Amino acid sequence: MTNKNTDYEILAQEVYQQILKEDGIDTIKVQHNVKIKGDSGQKHQIDVYWEFNMAKVKHRVAIECKNFTTPVSIGKIRDFSSVLDDIGNIQGIFITKTHFQSGAIKFAEHKGIQLKLLTNPTTEDLKSMGMIDTINISGDIYYIANTYPDIKFDFDWLLQNTNMKEGDPFKVAAYNCDILIVNSKGNTIKTFLDLENDLPRPTNTKEDQTGLIYKYEFNDKYLTWPNCPYPRLKVKYIEFKYDVFCTSMITKFEGNLAADALLKDIKSGEIHLHGNRTKWGKAGF
């Protein structure tokens, strides 16, 4: 069963990995569920963590994730601050999906802890960033149905090149994709299915059109199919009677599909949009 709290932590991990990548830093690995030993000897569980060296100085970042439905209290910030103090030389970030109480915000600012909201973007969020919130796509789809083929073989050729006699019964039994139109060398030109797909579809009206007729005429072309009694049989034309139906469609894309996670800094108001995350969309937080 999906653990929503763990999913939320992994989402934060993915968001910061993406941010580092966008900043051109591909060598730093953002980790999930890391144990770090403090000066007290106590091991602390960190939800999201990464570190890097710059100018021979180690920089470390620890993130506390709380998938709360109510604003985070000052007590939670104090607890996190104690962990950071015990570890030492580490930047703290506290993430939740709702908000922070005013006391928590003041204390975090005093301790240098960054506060972030990580949640679903709203239409208002997307509009504020100049993003399209809704895209409507409409159109008409024309499709063919009820196709009835009439095959006209070259019977003079049949009588001269096969042992068939006038009046002999004759049957074509195969799927349309297996019936081949070939040239005199046996090379495939099209399949019967190709002919059906190539039938013209008049698009000047949305009315259903029934009883349409179209004829393919052939010069030195032949039919063959699996289990055909002869290598190939010469054909003069194939005429189709068919219907064309029109279906109108309207597809609506909501703007929150363009970004399914929003990271917002409480102090600066800076916003980062994270790409599609199917698991979060299904599970929710």
Return Rg in Å.
Answer: 34 Å
By CATH, the architecture of the largest domain is named 3-Layer(aba) Sandwich
What's the CATH first level of the largest domain? Alpha Beta
CATH fold title of the largest domain: Trna Endonuclease, Chain: A, domain 1
Q: Distance between termini?
A: 14 Å
Low-confidence stretches: 277-285
Instruction: Kindly report the average pLDDT value.
Output: 87
**Number of discrete domains:** 2
Number of strands: 12
Number of DSSP helical runs = 7
How are helices and strands ordered from N to C?
Answer: HEEEHEHEHEHEEHEEEEH
Which percent band covers the strand fraction?
A: 35-45%
Helix content: 10-25%
Class inferred from helices and paired strands:
alpha+beta
Widest sheet: strand order?
Answer: 1-2-3-4-5-11-12
Outline type: elongated
Account of the 3D structure:
The radius of gyration is 34 Å and the shape is elongated. The chain has two domains: 4-131 and 258-283, Trna Endonuclease, Chain: A, domain 1, CATH 3.40.1350.10; 138-250, no CATH class. Residues 277-285 have low confidence and may be disordered. It is an alpha+beta fold and 285 residues long. It has helices spanning 4-22, 74-87, 102-111, 123-128, 155-161, 192-197, 278-283; strands spanning 31-37, 43-54, 57-66, 91-96, 114-119, 134-153, 180-182, 188-191, 209-224, 233-254, 261-265, 271-274. Helix 2 (74-87) runs parallel beside helix 3 (102-111). Strand 3 (57-66), helix 2 (74-87) and strand 4 (91-96) form a beta-alpha-beta unit.
